[in-house]
Write a sequence for this structure.
């Protein structure tokens, strides 16, 4: 009678085991590929994951930085509080949390969904089976370049996101009657620590690995035609968001 209660947790454990096994098999066999082909695949994925994501990441973090400054000005209306705290509040929020988290959620949809749909389509059209028939290790050929590109390019996107967020916050501060751009940057420098940037870069690497590896896992194991590809894409986006939230807490608990 109690067996149905444990069915779902057991499926979760089984899924985590299959996810770990896929990554082990993928990263254990890159020797099957020629270095020239391997490097070309990684370069292609770096462009698709990193360079082509810059516009949407910049747009999202520009508005995020602006909203952070508007809320900081609203909450610091007390005349006893110095106006420089607006810059401090924006710098801490963007470098420690929003620069990575907003970027990660944007890329869960853009990058995670694209990878899952791409690999899922290859699976249902038996293109992955064709790669295996040609003697190419499909896991190394398809999974490793995407995960490596994600790990390499997400820190770059974090730098772009943080820079754009701070600049947009400065513009909003300058446009307000209470804070000038000079006071904004003075407050941002007041409590700036290099470790904050290091923490953000470490989180972006973890998020890049989580989003791309989860998308590869769901897409590679897609089944059931077009409907199965759609389910894999949705599952990849949801799972990547959950993984990002868990990883965000773990990084904060361990590194701060």
């Amino acid at each position: 009678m109690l067996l149905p209660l444990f069915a779902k947790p057991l499926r979760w454990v089984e899924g985590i085991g299959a996810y770990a096994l896929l990554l082990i098999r993928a990263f254990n066999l890159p020797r099957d590929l020629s270095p020239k082909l391997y490097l070309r695949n990684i370069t292609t994925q770096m462009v698709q994951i990193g360079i082509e994501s810059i516009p949407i990441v910049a747009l999202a973090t520009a508005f995020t930085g602006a909203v952070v400054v508007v809320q900081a000005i609203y909450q610091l209306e007390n005349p006893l509080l110095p106006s420089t705290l607006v810059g401090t509040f924006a710098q801490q929020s963007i470098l420690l949390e929003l620069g990575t988290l907003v970027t990660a959620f944007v890329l869960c949809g853009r990058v995670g969904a694209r990878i899952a749909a791409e690999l899922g389509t290859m699976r249902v059209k038996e293109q992955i089976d064709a790669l295996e028939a040609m003697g190419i290790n499909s896991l190394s050929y398809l999974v490793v370049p995407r995960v490596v590109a994600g790990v390499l390019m997400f820190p770059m996107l974090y730098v772009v996101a943080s820079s754009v967020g701070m600049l947009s916050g400065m513009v909003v501060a300058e446009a307000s009657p209470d804070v000038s751009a000079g006071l904004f940057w003075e407050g941002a420098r007041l409590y700036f620590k290099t470790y904050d940037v290091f923490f953000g870069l470490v989180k972006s690497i973890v998020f890049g690995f989580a989003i791309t590896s989860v998308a590869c896992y769901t897409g590679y194991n897609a089944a059931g035609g077009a409907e199965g590809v759609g389910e894999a894409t949705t599952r990849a986006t949801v799972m990547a968001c959950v993984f990002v939230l868990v990883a965000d807490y773990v990084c904060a608990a361990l590194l701060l």
About this structure: The chain has a mean pLDDT of 88.
